[in-house]
Amino acid sequence: MRYRLGGLAALAVVAWMLPYQLNSYTMHVVNVMLLYAILAVGLGLAMGIAGQINLAQVAFFGVGAYATAVLTVKAGLGFWMAALLAILATAAVGLVVGTPALRVQSHYLGIVTLGLALAFTNWVTNSEVAGGAEGISGIPRPELPGIDLSNAYLYYYVELALFALTLGFGLFVVHTSLGRRMRAMRDDSLAAGAVGVEVPALRMTAFLLASVYGGVAGVLYSGLIGYVAPETFSIANMFLLLAMVIIGGRQSLVGCVVGAIALALVREVLIDYPTYAQVAYGTVVVLTVVFAPTGLAGLPRRLNSVARRLGWRRRPEQQAASLSPFRPYEPGPAPVDDAAPILEVRNLSMHFKGVKAVADVSILVPARQIRGIVGPNGSGKTTLFNVISGLYRPTAGRVLLDGRDVTAARPHALAHAGIARTFQNLRLFPALTVRDNVLVALDPSRVRGTWRYLLLPLGVWRRDRALRREADDLLDRFGLRAFADSQPTALPYGTQRRVEIARAMAARPRLLLLDEPAAGLNGDEVRQLCDIIRSIRDAGVNVVVIEHNMGMVMSLCDHVTVLAHGAIIADGPPDEVAVSPEVIEAYLGETMAMPAPAVSEAQR
Ligand SMILES: Nc1ncnc2c1ncn2[C@@H]1O[C@H](COP(=O)(O)OP(=O)(O)OP(=O)(O)O)[C@@H](O)[C@H]1O
């Protein structure tokens, strides 16, 4: 931390002293470079952090620049008033561009945003109000009392201040709740939705943020150059911007800035060879994507790991972190009405074209119950979970939680209503640490509260620190504290399974759906898992568990529902179900048989 602050202070001094060393042409180049850096940070937020393909950044830039030009030159407004309106206009365009993000997936968004970028250049080239191919000249230089901003040296300081502000804000977003939710969405939007991240609205927010950065850069550009023309906002420049972000390292905002500065310099050197320049950018982008996907920002870490592999550097002394015992939850108060179902599934069917994955299934799960769902492969168990947790809209039937109809609600809405789940094939966020995985679920922030980032940043920061403490407490309970800063993919399989349950519990659910939680665990790990599930039930959370490990089902579950071909063939206490002729027949030919209960009723 101390080194970082020292480095930052040194950079600030260099940036402050820069004008003293440069001639006016070079100063102009630096000013343009800063504009690209602001644009790249905005693009990095949308693409690198939130994972949304955004080829409209150059159009946002253009809207900011043209709106300033039209409002000052044609409408006669003062520069700063025009600047404010221009940024608002760009934000409005950002919201419009982000609207498809409410419905379509990221790769289609690439096409939508590319269309917008092309449409923008087309429109300004042909529109009278935008000055056609000649553009608009005579944009007044902005004025500040006592400071002559027509001087490139002084303009630099205005740009530098805005660059520092926009980069600082971007870093603040990345390292707090909003950025964490965006990174989770980028890594696995389905799992993010299941822990309560409002994926569609968050996607839109990413576009809104990118557009505001584009607007700020556009305003500064028109103030700097005093003239706007369509070629500045061409698709070739969009690809240059994209190259900056990819080469610099799209998952790091500082990397985006480094990429912007590096490519702006290369662009200056190759200014007389535009064709070669395009080929060179393309080649370097391809090489970066293939050989250094984390870009220049990830280079030190890669070089370090290569040096370690070659034995040039010693590996840091690693403390062998180990899984600690789970600390049981305090038992919750007894349920008020034992008979009232927490979950009710009524005549539910889910068909995929000809396949009846779930056929007219009805289930009642009363309070304080561990319900087992078993059945041969392909009997519809996971599909049932996917419908309950909102991933699929059922063909027919209803799902009620605490008596409230929640059929086909969005996954994030169901997570907020109290349904949490784990996945058959672990879906942890791979690029987030274990602590951040838990934090995403623990965090009650909503997209509509994003205004706090502008008006109450200190409050956001404090709240984040409190959440971190809560996350560490939860990791402690699950015996995972030693892994808080590890990437989940680096952990043993059994530990990852436990992290996923901890993440689901972080969402404070009423109902926990566990999809094959014992898959891949050894005997000891299965026993620990059973203790964890019992403690969760005793704390007042209802658990529905899909499992193939019949020994575990028999000893753990209070009640078992057996599915075959999408329909219920048996339902009752484990020992009754185990001897049901329908169940024995359904399992004939399966590798597993239904063993007798391993523990007595008293142990449950
Ligand atoms: N998205 C989908 N599209 C088409 N068919 C699907 C889809 N999801 C599931 N199915 C089909 O629905 C049926 C039930 O699948 P499901 O995964 O729910 O079974 P399962 O009981 O969970 O199986 P397993 O124990 O192997 O996980 C299968 O025939 C499967 O091929």
Automatic annotation (TrEMBL):
GO CC terms, sorted: plasma membrane
Domain of life: Bacteria
Ranges of residues in domain ABC transporter: 343-590
Gene3D superfamilies per record: P-loop containing nucleotide triphosphate hydrolases (3.40.50.300)
Membrane-crossing residue ranges in chain numbering: 27-46, 53-71, 77-96, 108-125, 154-178, 253-273, 279-299
This protein's UniProt keywords: ATP-binding, Cell membrane, Membrane, Nucleotide-binding, Transmembrane, Transmembrane helix, Transport
GO molecular function: ATP binding; ATP hydrolysis activity; branched-chain amino acid transmembrane transporter activity
Alphabetical list of Pfam families matching this protein: ABC_tran, BCA_ABC_TP_C, BPD_transp_2
Subcellular location(s) of the protein: Cell membrane
Keyword Glycoprotein on entry: no
Record-linked CDD domains: ABC_Mj1267_LivG_branched (cd03219), TM_PBP1_LivM_like (cd06581)
SUPFAM superfamilies membership: P-loop containing nucleoside triphosphate hydrolases
Major location (coarse): membrane
Membrane topology: Multi-pass membrane protein
Protein known as: Branched-chain amino acid transport system permease protein
Lineage, opening ranks: Bacteria, Bacillati, Actinomycetota, Actinomycetes, Micromonosporales
